[in-house]
Write a structure and sequence with these properties.
Blueprint lengths: L1 H34 L17 H8 L1 H34 L5 H13 L2 H15 L5 H25 L3 H9 L4 H30 L2 H6 L7 H11 L4 H33 L1
Helix pairs in contact: 1-11, 2-3, 2-11, 3-6, 3-8, 3-10, 4-6, 6-8, 7-8, 8-11
Length: 270
């Protein structure tokens, strides 16, 4: 009885602690939503009045539209490149016969374990010599470095849960390795690839440290525009941009959940 009571008290304490941490992390994010509708020229909570002019400014002012479009373009290219490299790397480590697989796996995951400021400084030193500072290819390469580990983690986990006998059956029936991957392996691990792509897209879209080192002076991403706006003149347009980020993230999570649910009936039917 005493042990059961202790377990119950422990669960309650853990729940309170987890709830406190959750509130501490989420509340500041939620507060930016009502502040984006404030009719004052500065950030204030609670808002003294309600207006949509800051959202209108975000969607109509070229100072915000251009960085947003560039960030979307950068994130899209980075996601595509990261998915190709990460999926190929995962297949090689799970299906291939390679010496030192664990070391290779740690190598791919090392950008997640290295402080981002260190990565940014190292990449800056290399890209400065290659004249890639301030260029789209340079930014894509740098963002790919930090996004590939997400693909490796997610796709590798999906491949380890994959029933290898299905691939062997396809090969025994005469399918080539490429056809087996396209018609057997890829449809089954597709939800994992989509999830990894979403992680990559959000990570690239939200990245600021690498951009501060590699952006140069000719272009600007949305996080850099928000950072500059906070530095020199704080107004609710930053909160409006944050609100757009929040809505996009929530919409992406909802879409991913629907995609996952849609894939489950297919697997059951097959």
């Amino acid at each position: 009885m005493r042990n059961q009571k202790r377990m119950e008290y422990g669960k309650i304490l853990i729940g309170i602690f987890a709830g406190t941490v959750f509130v501490f992390l989420v509340v500041p994010t939620i507060l930016s939503v009502p502040m984006s509708f404030s009719d004052t020229n500065y950030l204030v909570f609670p808002p003294k009045g309600l207006t949509l002019k800051w959202h209108h400014k975000f969607f109509t002012d070229q100072k915000w539209i251009t960085p947003t479009l560039f960030s979307l373009k950068l994130a899209s290219i980075t996601t595509a490149v990261s998915l190709i490299i990460g999926t190929m790397g995962s297949l090689a480590m799970v299906r291939g016969i390679l010496p030192g697989k664990r070391i290779l796996h740690l190598f791919f995951l090392s950008p997640m374990m290295t402080p981002l400021i260190v990565t940014a400084f190292a990449v800056y030193g290399l890209f400065a010599k290659l004249h890639l500072i301030g260029t789209l290819p340079g930014l894509v390469l740098a963002h790919t470095v930090i996004c590939v580990p997400y693909v490796i983690l997610v796709v590798t986990a999906n491949l380890y849960r994959f029933d290898l006998s299905m691939e062997l059956a396809a090969r025994n029936l005469g399918a080539s390795a490429f056809k087996t991957f396209m018609h057997v392996t890829l449809p089954i691990i597709k939800p994992g690839i989509i999830a990894a792509g979403i992680f990559c897209f959000i990570e690239s879209l939200d990245e600021l440290v690498l951009v501060l080192f590699l952006m140069g002076t000719t272009k600007m991403t949305l996080p850099l525009r928000m950072f500059s706006n906070i530095q020199f003149r704080i107004n609710p347009t930053v909160a409006a941009a944050s609100t757009v980020f929040i809505v996009a993230a929530i919409g992406t999570i909802i879409a991913l959940s629907f995609i996952t649910k849609a894939e489950k009936p297919r697997k059951v039917e097959e």
